[in-house]
Amino acid sequence: MKNKNLKIVVLGGGESGFGAALLAKSQGLEVFLSDKGEIRDNYKQLLIKNKIEFEEGKHSEERILAADWVIKSPGIPKKADIITKINAKKIRLSSEIEFASAFTNAKIIAITGSNGKTTTTSLIYHILKQANLNVGLGGNIGTSFAKQVAEENFDYYVLEVSSFQLDDVQNFRPYISLLLNLSPDHLDQYNYNYEEYALAKFKIAENQENDNYFIYNKDDEMSQKLLKELDLKVRKIPFSLKEKFHEGGFIENGNVVVDFQDSFSMKIEDLSLVGNHNIANSLAASIAGKILKISNENIRNSLMTFQAVEHRLENVAEIDGVNFINDSKATNVNATYYALESMQRPTIWIVGGTDKGNDYTEIENLVKRKVKAIVCLGVDNQKIIDFFKDKKEQIYSTSRMEEAVKISKSLAQNGDTVLLSPCCASFDLFKNYEDRGNQFKKEVLKNHN
């Protein structure tokens, strides 16, 4: 970054916004942060402490539109008025990951996909840490990437990246990128066009060259379709649960196998993560490990010792022979599909919340096969009740977590599972999916020593 006279404006004063502002300041750039809402007190104190100029409760348009480079937090909608004006003036508009990547020579491993991002990002980070590499974890998870570039000196970054962050990249070029899977999500931000959303995900690989790697899911139809249409220069390495490759990750005789340079394999039953989706995630992570020349022994140990991400198929407790699982992070139908698919026991399913245009036909057969009773938890449960009422006899409607868990406990017998996997956003009754998951855990463990 040669030009020290650049005027930087950061929109949004949360984790990624503060991180970007701190990095700009540390690089000696002129920086101003603007948040249309209120900035949380802890970030405000950090801005003051670091002498970063900011405003809240408004966007001073004249000041923002005088910027050379605007860094936008992923939570600000693309159609927001200020964004339209920035684009009209042709001011460079970037996400925090794009901005931060301009100031580091570290190798970046970037992970995207509709489901499994957090788990796979955390798993790859675990593999690299176990191999004693000097590595940071960031993006959509953990500490802001830009803040780490400003304050740390890592050789590697493992980043979870969303389509919203990828919308605003120009030169972002990871050493290894992973696209785990695609299913319709956040379509309200992409003109209700699935392909437009999928293409945003593929931006993770568009700047990669033939000395970089793109790990992709050969079983994913939309990924296959777009790979044929896009002219990606990167070296592509597939994984699949259905077919085998000379170079890639696959399943053979109850083992996960990666053939890349040499061969790695381990028994599926030794993986710490359960369910087919997690076998796929483990394959993708193992390929990344092999590319980085991490030893088979290290990869194997990491896959055996990894602890699942909180709120993602998290085992809460077994009480009187009933298993309680918190999958509050499943905010779309596809995520719940994976959860139900991995259930081995009769399941009481807690579902509901703010519907994002859900189509429940995708999980209809799984619900028929695996679910013993449905407990709806939301302000308005009618859509779920209407869809499943002819398919399941036992459907209950609740609007409090306490009530939902109480009913689930009364229905469950020794050998059953109670699964919170809501398919929906949490904002009707909870602050966020973490709050929903924490309340579930609290109610499950109440009166249990």
Automatic annotation (TrEMBL):
Domain Mur ligase C-terminal: residue ranges: 311-423
A Pfam family assignment: Mur_ligase_M
Pathway membership: Cell wall biogenesis; peptidoglycan biosynthesis
Binding site for ATP: 113-119
Chief localisation class: cytoplasm
Enzyme Commission number, as recorded: 6.3.2.9
Gene Ontology BP terms: cell division; cell wall organization; peptidoglycan biosynthetic process; regulation of cell shape
Alphabetical keyword list: ATP-binding, Cell cycle, Cell division, Cell shape, Cell wall biogenesis/degradation, Cytoplasm, Ligase, Nucleotide-binding, Peptidoglycan synthesis
Subcellular location: Cytoplasm
Gene Ontology cellular-component annotations: cytoplasm
InterPro entries in the cross-refs: Mur-like_cat_sf, Mur_ligase_C, Mur_ligase_C_dom_sf, Mur_ligase_cen, MurD
Top-level taxon of the source organism: Bacteria
Catalytic activity: UDP-N-acetyl-alpha-D-muramoyl-L-alanine + D-glutamate + ATP = UDP-N-acetyl-alpha-D-muramoyl-L-alanyl-D-glutamate + ADP + phosphate + H(+)
Record domain Mur ligase central: where: 111-288
Molecular functions per Gene Ontology: ATP binding; UDP-N-acetylmuramoylalanine-D-glutamate ligase activity
Function: Cell wall formation. Catalyzes the addition of glutamate to the nucleotide precursor UDP-N-acetylmuramoyl-L-alanine (UMA).
Membership in a protein family: Belongs to the MurCDEF family.
Identification of the protein by name: UDP-N-acetylmuramoylalanine--D-glutamate ligase
Organism: Halpernia humi
